[in-house]
Amino acid sequence: MYIVFEGIDGAGKSSQIQLLKEWLEENGLEVELLVEPTDSKVGKLIRELLTYDNATTEDMQKTLGLLFAADRMLIMDKLNDENKIIISDRSFISSLAYQEPKDWINEINKYAKKPDLVLLLDLDVATSVKRCDGEDSFENEEFLNKVKENYLDVIKEFNYEIIDANNGINKVSSDIKKAVASYVGICSSQIP
Ligand SMILES: Nc1ncnc2c1ncn2[C@@H]1O[C@H](COP(=O)(O)OP(=O)(O)OP(=O)(O)O)[C@@H](O)[C@H]1O
Ligand SMILES: Cc1cn([C@H]2C[C@H](O)[C@@H](COP(=O)(O)O)O2)c(=O)[nH]c1=O
């Protein structure tokens, strides 16, 4: 099973992925975590470009779109293990939300695996900006407002759950567990 966490910067993805992993393992399931961008050379180049002032310009966004697509091809083989639950911090759905145009993003990601379940952590943009350190050029209200809008549009094409990420960590975690339980064969009645 391939479960993907999506959301604007600072939505709480990495915190919640850790909590979900622990809970799934306590329930006897094997879990592997992935992160995009990866720690490959391509991923490291992406991380550097994201700090550039021109990261949101049209030309740089096209370059990033191609690099994100190339970087994710490097982890595709890890997604075929049916004995594990693969949880990924982002996927090509991030490219659909952050880069454009949509048709082109879909085309260059046509070999990217479609997730079995997408958890969209939906956070207010103002809170996101407060949580982020502003090191990356994407971490500004105007850009993230558009990304949030794109997410709510593109997510409908997938098997998805929207989680209110404005709540405290424990409430968000419990909402995520309830959303995931039926997919992984865990009874949800004991989740507080
Ligand atoms: N529900 C929450 N309430 C308050 N603070 C939170 C919550 N969830 C996460 N945080 C805090 O917000 C910050 C960002 O969280 P986290 O790194 O988990 O988000 P992320 O979506 O992985 O971020 P990024 O996209 O920037 O990698 C961290 O300091 C974390 O402790
Ligand atoms: C996979 C992917 C990511 N991005 C952006 C989204 C974030 O601003 C950064 C990744 O850093 P984070 O620690 O996960 O916040 O990259 C993107 O624009 N397009 C993508 O495909």
From TrEMBL:
The residues that the entry says bind ATP are G7, I8, D9, G10, A11, G12, K13, S14
Q: Which reaction does it catalyse?
A: dTMP + ATP = dTDP + ADP
Q: What is its EC number?
A: 2.7.4.9
Domain named Thymidylate kinase-like: residues = 5-176
| GO MF annotations in UniProt | ATP binding; dTMP kinase activity
Q: Which PANTHER family match?
A: THYMIDYLATE KINASE, UMP-CMP KINASE 2, MITOCHONDRIAL
Protein name as it appears in the record: Probable thymidylate kinase
What is the species listed in this Swiss-Prot or TrEMBL entry? Answer: Methanobrevibacter woesei
